[in-house]
């Protein structure tokens, strides 16, 4: 049997998602969030990187409320483009930056219809101020179209998260792949630039991978 490439896996997951009963699909995000909230990694984290979901991504509303109640520092992503100078031609990289947020009122709809921190809010640079993963336990939940049982993650193909997470200053951040169990594969076709997760949280389980 021929192995599926990344594009085929994204299409397969989309097809599986369309087959999930609406009532069941509404229950799955609650199960995913409860599995994360009950984990030791969530409870011990001082800084948490969340995200505001698109329609086909797992919800995070309970995580946001819990983080506020537990007085964790909440960081939310904002899409950016980085222009790199090159001797022959310039290259634009898609990436993200994380911004401290205390309320949903600090968000507005931006590119792709995603709720993001207001443009006026200052992003934190890794290693700056409170954003010091070496001294403060930091956990990021990372959305994806598919995951595997070895820490592999498949995003939408634009590279926003992989570009950002390649920063060496972020190697101490605990990365949790966050999605539906029907999107989990035994193994994904990964490339060198694909960042691996430290754990996976789905509607069925929370599992940590060996480092």
From TrEMBL:
GO MF annotation list: 5-formyltetrahydrofolate cyclo-ligase activity; ATP binding; metal ion binding
Enzyme nomenclature, EC number: 6.3.3.2
Gene3D superfamilies: NagB/RpiA/CoA transferase-like
Pfam families: 5-FTHF_cyc-lig
Keyword Ribosomal protein carried by entry: no
InterPro entries in the record: FTHF_cligase (IPR002698), FTHF_cligase-like_sf (IPR024185), NagB/RpiA_transferase-like (IPR037171)
Example GO BP: folic acid-containing compound biosynthetic process
Named cofactor requirement(s): Mg(2+)
Residue numbers binding ATP: 6-10, 153-161
Key words of the record: ATP-binding, Ligase, Magnesium, Metal-binding, Nucleotide-binding
Residues that coordinate or bind substrate: 52, 57
Enzyme class label: ligase
UniProt KW Glycoprotein keyword: no
Record field: catalytic activity: (6S)-5-formyl-5,6,7,8-tetrahydrofolate + ATP = (6R)-5,10-methenyltetrahydrofolate + ADP + phosphate
NCBIfam families according to UniProt: MTHFS_bact
Record-stated family: Belongs to the 5-formyltetrahydrofolate cyclo-ligase family.
This protein's name: 5-formyltetrahydrofolate cyclo-ligase
